[in-house]
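2 proteins. here.
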Amino acid sequence: LDKYLNALKNCFLFYQVNRYDIKGNQYLKTLEKYYCVDFGLKYAILGYKNVNSGHVLENIVYLELKRRGYDVYIGKVGDLEIDFIAINQYDTIYIQVCETIRDSNVLERELKPLRSIRDHNQKILLTLDNDVNNSYDGIKTLNVIDFLLT
């Protein structure tokens, strides 16, 4: 399996994203994630059944962050996960991606990892919801399409 994953990465079909422990300030060697360069390949092989639109949305945000020149990592704070830590020479941004945050339990689940970070870098929660231009304890909520177009 490792050889296949390496071949797919070397062919630029998948990106490997490593984990970064924010509190320990170190890169982790396990539990990396993989993002697909082109979902058309996935659909050609697996079809359109059981499409996880949340994962597709996360994949789109990852590709956009790479396009903007960020180094991207998966964040870890204790036992919580942050979808993306985007780092470039000018700033660091913490990003959570969620299809919808209309349910208060989902909103709290998505905000919890961002609230646990105690530095002053920008924190953003991206969603497909259209009426979300709010801030929760300094955490911006933005429509993902608006984010992609800026």
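next one coming up
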Amino acid sequence: MKHQPHITIIGTGFGGLGMAIQLLRSNIGDVHLLEKADDIGGTWRDNDYPGCACDVPSHFYSFSFEGRADWTRVFPPRDEIFAYMNGLADKYDLRQRTRFGCEAQRIVFDDTKQKWHIHTKAGEVLETDIVITATGQLNRPKMPEIAGHNDFKNPIFHSAEWDYSQSLEGKRVAVIGNGPSAAQFIPEVAKQAAQMTVFQRSPCHVAPRGDAAYSGFRKFLFRFVPFYRKLYRGLLYWSLESTFLSFNSFEKVRFLARVLNRASNFENRIAEHFDEQVQDPHLRKILKPDYPIGCKRVVISDDYYPALQRPNASVETRNIDCIVETGIRTDDGETHAFDVIIYGTGFASTEFLAPMQVVGTKGADLNKQWHEGAEAYLGITMPHFPNFFMLYGPNTNLGHNSIIFMLECQFDYILRALRALRGMNAHHAHTIDLKESRLATFMDYLKARLASSVWEKDCDSWYKNEAGRVTNNWPDFTYVYQKATQEFNLEDYDFTPAPNKIEAAE
């Protein structure tokens, strides 16, 4: 591929923006981005519910190559994160490279031209050499199948589509769900509503957050002593990384847990937090989980338990039978009247790349290949889909560290792949395609690691697909992933010549 390849990135969240920046800094390719919405930002654009913030410390929820010295708090609120992303888009002039309001619906590989055709919702067909998807795992709100949803006569909405036109002051509010997003907005709703009822299917483990504003002196150090910020970022990384000791039991983890005694420390913190904040016997009974820590995503909060103990708050554990005109009917036949219903039910996280259809070489249909669960080598590449890369793909989500770290590893790997492709010019290489044998070996490794992970335990979570298969989480330390992505092995891929070279050979 002697010419600069045309590279199309789909999505402008952290993955899309970071990948574009690294490609531009490396002078690899003619970079363009597609965004279905009218602005950049991905999940941090869409989610602006009250209390929205990140569960990862601010100095580690930002790119290592684009650090920020003026974070105001240990845990960044949504508006600061969104401002950071907008600053990156402005600095690298990424909006000029982005087609907004352009939703990719079908992506098809042309075997003759050895190029990808992107069919948009508007009916256009865009041609490109390389596709990099950055659509994320948390971009499609999950709406539970509850009968009568359309019968409710009052406002009803999902947290990812917060309706700020509706005041909650003095209202009777129902919250369906109690996961990480719900745990952030529930305290804010409780401050406004006359009555708030949280419908809980199962309780969640809650770890203390320990959020605080950075002092002026700390911010001075972050700004004027670069080594201090780098050291602090490193300490954050290893503090988060050590939490993995609580989530897996394979031999290396057990050994490190015994040496560092960190697994029991994390579990003790959760237990102590529960004991300190929940003392009412009834609430202790209904809020204490009966499944292992980490089986579902751990909520990080200092104000979730206190919010549930306010005089105007209650927790309902009876199952929802249906939604009616005036509220919610539980399975005991009782109807609970509400003025507003809010879904805090998360996202359809296991349907990777949905609702797009992706068709590779010789008609290979990705939806059919993934009918039992999404699979990709390092969560990035797949056989029969040449010059196609994913960011935040299958089994690259984390339960203990920062996805920004994983994304940076993926950026590095894709850059190495594209440099390797460029370096194969002497052999007239035009595309690279992962070998099936490499994916099979990698999936065996994932299967073995997942078998000893807490995510395989008997509990429902957004880490699993409908068949109960864990398709979201990386089941090892993140430094293992980093090491794996620091090398691009040519033997893992087949290289295909440019079309004119194929014709000459024939």
